[in-house]
Fold:
Amino acid sequence: MKKRTTSGKRPRRIDGATSHRAISARGRNATPPLVDRKEITLRVNGNTHVATVDVRTTLVDFIREQVGLTGTHVGCEHGVCGACTILLDREPVRSCLLFAVQADGAEISTVESLGTPEHLHPVQEAFRDHHGLQCGFCTPGFLMTTVALLHDRPTLSEAEIRSALSGNLCRCTGYQGIVEAVLDAAQRLRALTHS
Ligand code: FES
Ligand code: FES
Structure:
């Protein structure tokens, strides 16, 4: 026996041209198409960059490959080593953990913004003078972390520096030179502020 609706009418067939209402309802509930590329605008070291990126591009890859600034290093790619640390709106962040599209509209500073070989930033001078680096792979991350740290807290004890830098890993120096460099950099920056 044919099944009947409660109204006693035969069930209406829902397909094709006979059901505009069904189609528009389907359209309303449909999953929107995935966006795989997006235009973003970032300021990197004072220069504006407009680019269309794959939404899966990490910020560090964008900085290195599309902006062409390779001073920011990629180590673990898991947010563990700190080698990829940059400043995003003045806050230190791990650029391997962010997508470039998440930084749309942000102000970014990389290690290239600090100084030049002829005119090093005081933090760079202190790292050089205290042998705060050996192979240098971790150094951009340490420098950017230190710059942000000393901007917020110009005076720190050795223990506070060790704690603040505990998220940056170095496999060469043994850390003592790095800590001494940060203590000295703090002194240099305070002297500059008061001169
Ligand atoms: Fe980003 Fe290691 S590469 S934290
Ligand atoms: Fe080589 Fe830090 S200087 S990893």
Observations:
- The chain is about 35% helix and 15% strand.
- The domain at 37-113 is CATH 3.10.20.30 (Ubiquitin-like (UB roll)).
- The pocket of FE2/S2 (inorganic) cluster (ligand 2) is lined by residues 133-139, 170-173 (CB under 6 Å).
